[in-house]
Amino acid sequence: MLEYILNGGFMMWPLLALSVLVVAVILERRSVFREANVDDHKMRESLFQLLAERKIDEAMDLCSRGSGPVAAVLLAGLRRYRKLEKLGRDGRDIEDAVARTMSEYAPHVINALERRLNMLLMIAGVAPLMGMTGTVTGMIRAFREMAGAGGLSGDVVAGGISEALITTATGLIIAMPAVVFYNLYTRRVDEMTLQIEESATELVDFINTHA
Fold first, then answer.
1. pTM
2. Of 82, 144, 190, 191, whose CB neighbour count within 10 A is largest?
């Protein structure tokens, strides 16, 4: 590995830094999505059962013990629900306020899921460009050393081409997992966003029919 880094020229060092960064982001986001990936169906069933029994505090406690984004958004709506109910607001006002509260809070939850994904996209674009830069500098070095040698030298040409091919391959190797995991994680964010929207709609519909 060290031999490839040394043979690849100076562009291998920023490429090496990018490779460390892409692995770090992938692992960190994997941990976040694993924690957020919970089965909300049972939680939602229990939640609406508690709400049907007018046990709002217990429903809030259930959401506060949840670890997923759905639980966080529902908790924000329930807190608003509880506050307005204590103030004696009518059902329509409560419904609108709860829907607005969850709509405003959901982007914060989604933003936490999307954090650092743009870094994967950036690395996917920058790594091949760095590899191409290494290709150009490798060829420049080869021609410069050929000129200095006063003729065609197989060793000189091979060294320059080796540097060019190593940096190009390294840039592509770094970019591939960045693209793959960016798309996987983006799809997961979309799925969780849909779950949040469905759960929020269920809560608003429940308030509409029971308030």
1. 0.82
2. 82
